[in-house]
Records
---
Amino acid sequence: MTYSFRILCLILLFLPAASLPAKAQVCDTLFEVITTLRPPTFGFPTVWDAKFGKRESMVQMASGVAMDGGTVFTISRTLSKKDFRPEKIVLAEINRRGRALKEESYPAKTAEEPIKMIRVGDQFVALSNVRGGKGNAQKWVRLSWYDLNGKYKREHILKDGTFDYSGATLVPSAEKSGFIAVIHAVSRADETDQNGLLIRMSPSGSQLWRRAYRPGIPNKLTGLTKIDETSYIATGRIRLDDGRMAGWAMKLAYDGAVQWQRTYPRGRFSVFTGAALSPSQSAEGYGFYLSGQSTPTDDGPDAAWIMEISALGEPLWQRYYRRNDYTLSGQWVQSEADGRIILMMNAQAVDGQGGHDHIRILTLSPRGILINDESYYEGLLAKATDFVPGWNGERIFTATIADDAASYEEEDVPITVIGLVPDEENEGEEKVPEDPVHKGWVMVATALDPYEDPCKGRYGP
């Protein structure tokens, strides 16, 4: 794409609506648009949200499962306030009143960090990263099973004599029952020898197949999305010849065989973390949405990135969302039945800018036009760790937050000014506790309002 065409796209984006032809205003799809988002506006209503964790403990929430009764079953870890070592793995069922209906805790393994939990039939399966071996120098992946009341049943360790393993996520398998563990493998002898790995497991934990993706270039799988009963889209990053990391996507068969793969170099560094099926159809089948983040070449903070690709991986359009005072990362993407696209991101404030870390949700039209921008905040250092579709179109997030500054002031806990010298001139700047107490946060965002695509049937599908 030429530089002049990019400038034209930006001019069209910011022209008043009255100056654009009706078709261009609503129904044309610009190939690439870079948008500077407005500052966050907090206070969007939620269906419900709840904090989890006691004042005397450090809780980091990792993942959640939507239950039939309208509750969310979560997995977290508690940390020692003295040395931040993991102490317990906690499973809790939280209702819309913020109460833990059920709670079970178990001693954490060495350096255990829960990453993802899914429901497989009448049980939960959780993936955690742990350390083991001589001197706990090796990185392993732990799979653990629990019943639907959170009672521990068994575990299985995934490890290798040559490679360190780090788990990225768990995904229900496309065929029959069971699940797939997505793992990043790094050689202990050569850190440049790293690759993505998929391991298919039965519901009880028997290994059915494994696939290592080793094209001779360092790569990492960050996500896997089940498309139908026969295929997946794998997302991640891969190193290019010039040393940059590029976004990477693969279409995989039910057994992990590669049907196609494509690299998408953007900026100085780019990665895809999520994918969803697109309604765009061609002779080859349906396309896909890919979400991630990209580091721009102008040394600004990372931008959230979303791209639509064809059934064969050809880019159809892409959007970048950025702010100079926030690092934005597109974590998950969801396609609605009415054609709208939901891009869910973490917004991390740039040091010294005085902003709030928060969860941000963008709603786009089928052609990538921004329709709605929602920002959610409930405590300092907010970071979403998992997203699952909820009931009747609701959107469920688990996150880790810190108690907000007001509660610390009330309890006379010492506070400091981040990135600034505390003096009279900075009294109005954002303040946070020296040692913020982490808590879990479950947030259920409302379903989208009804929508009718104004272009449907007028200018194509």
---
Amino acid sequence: MRRLVIIPSLLLFMLACADRNTSEGVAEDFVYVYYKHADQAAALSLSALLAAEKLKDEIELVRTVRNPGEKLEQLPPIEYEMVGKKSQENENQVFFRYRLTVKNGGTTISLRNVVIHTELIDGCWKVINFDEYSD
């Protein structure tokens, strides 16, 4: 039985470090799964450090209404675009700024800004922190 637990974990780790193992790839994948699809479990697989702690806390909070990884049926359409990128001098940390547009029936109901902080950890790019703010 132990193998069954290790194999999916190893597969998930390999997928997280696959073709999208760039700072930009992991940031975009994070925005896609977390903001567009409200999938905290998938976002957690892309995260480490403070971002992972935030997501674990959030997963616990929503556990009473849905299981981790369970898809929500009704989500408002969310569009996003990267509007900024800044690398640290050592280039092992990269910050991204995204603009989220939440719509309802074609009408914009919310504009949000998201900052994603990525870092290269043991050969894999991970989101280590994220925050959002409005204009």
